[in-house]
Amino acid sequence: MIEAAGTLGLSRLGLVRHVVLPGALPGFLVGLRYSLGIAWLALVIGEQVNANTGIGFLMTDAREFLQTDVIVVCLIVYALLGLVTDLIVRMLEKGALTWRRSFTGQ
């Protein structure tokens, strides 16, 4: 596609805008979704291991005092935060990838 764009006389900026970015955007957005999931997981682990405040600390503290209801609520909060983050990136994908015929937005 780069050679075809060069043959058609596309400038360097036009090449990046019309060929390179649309080609890299799907992979970038998939990587963003994946990395945000890993970031939430790292946050949970970090808060449970070495924190004095936060939801992870609250879960660890509740575990020591056998408060399963607090643990379940904390897990639900983490799940909702992860789902909201994923929903935001999916909405970004839906807006940015409307030009692809194979993209269904799911």
Mean pLDDT: 88
Shape: elongated
Q: How far apart, in Å, are the first and last alpha carbons? A: 27 Å
Share of helical residues: over 70%
So what's the oligomer here? single chain
Biggest sheet record = none
SSE succession: HHHH
Q: Any chance you could write out the topology, listing elements then pairs?
A:
Blueprint: H1 2-7, H2 12-49, H3 55-64, H4 68-96
Helix pairs in contact: 2-3, 2-4, 3-4
Describe the structure in brief:
By secondary structure, the chain is mainly α. It is built from 4 helices and no strands. α2 packs parallel to α3 and α3 packs antiparallel against α4.
Report on this model:
By secondary structure, the chain is mainly α. Helix content is 78%, strand content 0%. It has 4 helices and no strands. The protein has helices spanning 2-7, 12-49, 55-64, 68-96. α2 (12-49) runs parallel beside α3 (55-64) and α3 runs antiparallel to α4 (68-96). The longest helix has 38 residues, at 12-49. The radius of gyration is 21 Å and the shape is elongated.
Based on the model shown, name its key terms.
106 residues, mainly alpha, 4 helices, 0% strand, elongated
